[in-house]
Amino acid sequence: MSLDAERTTDLLAQAREFMRRHRLQLILALRVTVAALVALLLAQVLHLRLPLWAILTALIVTQMSLGKSVKVATDYLIGTLAGVAYGGALAIFIPHESEFALLVVLAIAVAPLAFIAAFRANFNVLPITAIIVLLVPGMQHVSPTVSAVDRVLEVTIGGAVGFAVSFLIFPSRALAMTTEAAGSTLELVADALTLLLEHHTQGIEGPDLRRIQDGIGASLAKLNATGAEAEHERKARLTSGPDTGPLLRTLLRLRHDMVILGRAVGCELPEMVRDRLTPKLDRIAGSASAFLRSSAASLRTLTPPPALQAVEADFHAYIEEFGAVRHEGLTRDMGNEAAERFFALGFALEQMREHLAEVQRVVGEWAKD
Hints:
Elements: H1 3-21, H2 23-45, H3 51-61, H4 66-93, H5 99-119, H6 125-140, H7 144-168, H8 174-198, H9 206-235, H10 245-264, H11 271-301, H12 309-327, H13 336-368
Helix pairs in contact: 2-3, 2-7, 3-7, 4-5, 4-6, 4-7, 4-9, 5-6, 6-7, 8-9, 8-10, 8-11, 9-10, 10-13, 11-12, 11-13, 12-13
């Protein structure tokens, strides 16, 4: 193979890898471009006075997922109608021919709407719409009523275009994004569990522990966002997925288990206790982590969850050995801090055992749905 052919092959491989890694972002860019072009064409065909607002609305409504497009379109349309009604009423009933009168009316229009928008960030369009309805009539020499009607038409057309493009061009369902985010969270929890139990006597350095917990927290934040978008899709009957609440709550409980476990590891155990419990903890780390990773795969493919018998057996073996160590009095000589960590470790594992059963139940519900 010639040098030029090798370079071409390498470039194509890099391009394919780039497109695979940034697939969602590229699709969003395509949707936004199409939405802007279609909105402009419709605005020109309908002879709208300000096509800019139809285009901007289409860009705002076109989101990464269909669920978010539904939410943004609804909020934007409600905010626009409210802003048009308020701004139009001020423009019609309060004369503002002089510059001072215009300043007064503008202040009356902006202040209360900005106050409302401060409590509801999704209604930022309220003061903007009122300003447009107030100022555009003077610029284009039209009546406030015509300006208000034009504004509603522009936003309606832009919103409809944005939603239609999101629905028709490579639609990204928030439900699928939710299962992907949940699977990633389960895998992070599995990695953290393995690492924490491997270092249950030595402990983990503070920065490393914070990195682990922050990674799980960031993944949960992403999951909460996509879960909210999935709920918008479900309520709008654009998808038939299950309620995301139980899944989000279960993964949040797992995160809390990791926090408690992170504080419990690092206890100095007597040699006899360490020798008896460490093999049991190693088996829990292996079976529970494998269960979490398999559950992540099942969630992504919406297939039945893995069996929990092996995990239950390993937890049961640890709990029995834990009780035997206490019964034999092997923990009496432990210091206060070591004893606190030792019992916190047992508590965290008992909680995790219950929450792993919840994971199996929730994954099974998604597979059945």
